[in-house]
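Exercise (ungraded).
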Amino acid sequence: MIPAGFDYHAPDSVAEALRLLDELDDAKLLAGGHSLLPMMKLRFAQPAHLVDLGRIPGLSGIREEGDVVVIGAMTVENELIRSEIIRRRVPLLAEAAALIADPQVRNRGTIGGDIAHGDPGNDHPALAIALDAGFVLEGPGGRRPVKAEDFFLGTFMTELADNEILVEIRVPGLAPHTGQAYEKLKRKTGDWATAGAAVVITIEQGKVGAVRIGLTNLAPSALRAEAAEQALLGQPLSETTIEDAATRAAAICDPAEDLRGDRDYKLAMARQMVKRAIRKAAARCP
Amino acid sequence: MSTRTVTMSVNGEQRRAEVEDRTLLIHFLREQLNLTGPHIGCETSHCGACTVDLNGVSVKSCTVLAVQCEGAEVLTVEGLAEGGVLHAVQEGFHQQHGLQCGFCTPGMLVRSYRLLQDNPDPTEEEIRAGISGNLCRCTGYQNIVKAIQYAAKRLKEAQSVSA
């Protein structure tokens, strides 16, 4: 399978990439290519132009800016797994990246591509929501920030405009008394989640002081389970509150039936993943 | 539909060729350079039969464009043996019966090579995780794991001799 014909462009700056997006008709940004190229082979996508972000210096890499960890959009999954900064400040991302695709794909697949693609099966959207991450979008008028939870609008639909590039993911570092966990049920290496839940929870003096829950592949886009968070907030963690949170999380899910299971099965698994992730994150609270 | 000239190092040799922008690395290697070691299996980046080394990391060459490899260094299974002597991973697959039909083998070998470069002393679990992007429908993986363990041992012996 070979994609339909297109013209390839390899700009060496964000400004040049933005100019190409503006000038060319029907151009698509190419990051790691492990979603876009397969879609192009299958003719689900047939852009006239590909603008490769892979040659732009400064779009990949991880750095600390005070309390925030800044991740370049072109940072590949294996770099997240290896990064000392990520392991120390955002261990959730290192843990979850290891569950994405396989070793070869993780050398190409980028965090920015995973987010900007808008596929509900991708893992980074729910992770970013749980982490309360912010995205920096650069367009002709400059940069603008968007919160992760406001970015995902539906399947393959995001806040990113046609003339913008996602350049940075900004993640608050691990807060005191906080644990993080990602539970992903999948059939095999490389599979998307049947159901996935990301939890960041703060427990102080025996009570849940803060909690954020993100859900993967359980609706047309990644979800924040706010009602589930409310079930836990301000209370000591107990099997009753965890059950309540799982029920509330499942109530907002709208999973598509596919080879991974029917709706009822996926809702049952959503409950399980939420419960497991809450317990695991709580156990990790120092 | 545009074409352009790409230049890259393949198995240590500078290669230059005219490709369409849409040409995938696997087709460039197989059809333009006649390096038919890397195989075309699933074509959807799942099976790993097309695995090659690109700038020191393993990639699936069915999901990389040749034009993305301008200036890159590529290693295929053809580049593993030196001076007619099998590389330790090749010897391992031979000695430990790490293949049956052989279709997945070129990808397995190149992936194993990189795995041992990155982690010369892997546990069985690390080996299994390391080759989780390569599917084999024959062996059940047992002998592939043994082959990689064999190679790791050989490479360590060679290193201690040269040290």
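Further reading is listed at the end of the chapter. For now, observe: Residues 7-51 of chain A form a domain with the Uridine Diphospho-n-acetylenolpyruvylglucosamine Reductase; domain 2 fold (CATH 3.30.43.10). Chain A touches chain B at residues 1-8, 10, 33-34, 37-38, 41, 50, 52, 54, 78, 101-105, 107-108, 189-190 (CB under 8 Å).
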